[in-house]
Amino acid sequence: MAGEGDLKLLGLLVSPFVTRVRLALHIKGLSYEYIETDVLDKGELLLRYNPVHKKVPVLIHNGVPLCESQIIVQYVDEVWAAAGAPILPADAYQRATARFWAVYVDDKLFPAWLGILLAPTEAARAEKVGETLAALAQLEVAAAECLDGGKRPFFAGDSIGFLDLAVGCNMFWMEALRRMFGVTFLDAGKTPLLVAWAERFAGTEAATAVVPDPDAAVAFARKLQAKYGSAPPAN
Questions:
Q1: Which residues have a Cβ under 8 Å from the Cβ of 178 and sit 6 or more positions away?
Q2: Which of 55, 52, 60, 57 is CA-nearest to residue 43?
Q3: Who contacts 219 (Cβ-Cβ below 8 Å, separation ≥6)?
């Protein structure tokens, strides 16, 4: 694999944001040292390299840390522009559109599904399920435009790119939550474009190599529930 300088990644295996960065590094063919980090008990490295937010991922390039997954992915794409396939679209409007929906994913979809996991009551969980389904319904609308009604295999075109990574890094958690709570989030009748896209994304070489098994997410979810408390799954 290609490499330039010293690269380290502080991460958590089941973090969607870490998965996003690992996908970008894989697409670019970059070698790096991966350091699994206990985010429930902040370690010395994490506190040293991300003292502001104290969270992963943190990419350390030649001793200099970069934080926030969207920023890291864009940095990787710019610094190693000649390596691998481009991640951000070349067209300015398409690039802005990809960034817009990536922000939507982080601001709406992620907090909603995380709320399902940590909800203190079944009523609160049901509300978060509704928010998650609403966010996915909105992404189905975006997919109609970005996928050209299904004519394009990925948001970026013929191969995965910035928005594919932004959405795709959450998909293994959708399956983990289905196994835990029995809720199907991607439905061929309601979100057919996303269902077809998710199947193609999961079959890519990058996703096969990087995306964690949903069972690992379920195991971590149990730890979060034990630490923070949440309503047990309904029978």
A1: 184, 185
A2: 55
A3: none
CATH match for 7-79 among 3.30.360.10, 3.40.30.10, 3.30.390.50, 1.10.10.10: 3.40.30.10
Distance CA 173, CA 175 (A): 5
Q: What is the pLDDT of residue 228?
A: 82
Q: Do residues 200 and 154 make contact, with C-beta atoms less than 8 angstroms apart?
A: yes
Residue spans of the domains in the chain: they are 7-79, 92-228
The position carrying tokens 């098994």 is: 213
65: part of which helix (H) or strand (E)? strand 64-67
Q: What is the pLDDT of residue 234?
A: 55
- Tell me the average confidence (pLDDT) per consecutive run of 10 residues in the chain, 235 residues long: 75 98 98 94 92 96 97 98 96 97 98 97 97 98 95 96 98 98 96 98 98 98 87 59
- Residue 94: alpha-carbon gap to chain centroid: 20
* In the block, residue with structure tokens 């000649």: 82
Rounded Cα gap, residues 64 and 33, in angstroms: 14
